[in-house]
Amino acid sequence: MTSAVKRVGMFGGAFDPPHVAHVALARAAVEQLNLDELRIFPTGDAWHKAQALSPAEHRLAMARIAFGELPHTVIDERELRRPGPTYTIDTLRELKAEQPQAELFLIMGEDQAVSLTRWREWQAIPALATICMAARASTDADAPRALPAEAELKLLRLPEMPESATEVRERVAAHEGIDHLVPPGVARYIDRHSLYRPA
User: Fold this and answer.
1) Which residues of the chain form beta strands (DSSP E)?
2) What is the pLDDT along the chain (199 residues), one digit of tens a residue?
3) Among 7, 14, 15, 199, which residue has the fewest nearby CB atoms (within 10 Å)?
């Protein structure tokens, strides 16, 4: 009897900080895609981010706090350790080389999906992984319209969740509460390390 093909998800992001919508998307991916493993990748040198990211050790620690209790999740540090800009295509190729028999799923939020055609070698991504996009009530299902015809796109159903890392950072800087926006451990970490406070 042949064993079932392993189903591995990839969910990358700055996670600066990780918020409740990130956690909800990770949970939805594991459950709705029946993943054996979901690898969480905090971004290294993010080529597409205008603002400087918080130090890698803080974003890694917050990712461990936010996602650590979710079943089947693994925090993968490789993008933080890779020199130079971080590109999703490089990580996907590494995963495919490590687990050639696995079926890969690239998990992304709606905002990432809309910008997908600006990613490095984005046309090569569908050959490596099924693209899985968060579909909230307001989602335009045709958002990644420019994907190649052979690309497989799966929608992950999520409730309307307007949280964003930008909002978290702005609220911290304004001394406003964030308990409803981030997991409790992340809120405590931000406070303990005085992150996102005005200089």
Assistant:
1) 7-13, 37-42, 45-46, 73-75, 85-86, 103-108, 130-135, 153-157
2) 456 899 999 999 999 999 999 999 999 999 999 999 999 999 987 655 557 899 999 999 999 999 999 999 999 999 999 888 889 999 999 999 999 999 999 999 887 887 888 899 999 999 999 999 987 655 455 555 556 666 778 999 988 888 899 999 999 999 999 999 999 999 999 999 999 998 7
3) 199
Residue 98 falls in which region: left (phi positive, over 0), alpha (psi -120 to 50) or beta: alpha
Q: How far is CA 39 from CA 36, 54, 96, 116, 198, in A?
A: 10, 21, 13, 19, 33
**pTM higher than the cut 0.85:** yes
Q: Which residue in 61, 82, 51 sits closest to 188, CA to CA?
A: 61
Domains of the chain plus CATH, in order, are 7-160 (3.40.50.620)
What is the enclosing helix (H) or strand (E) of 160? none
Per the listing, tokens 């999740």 go with 73
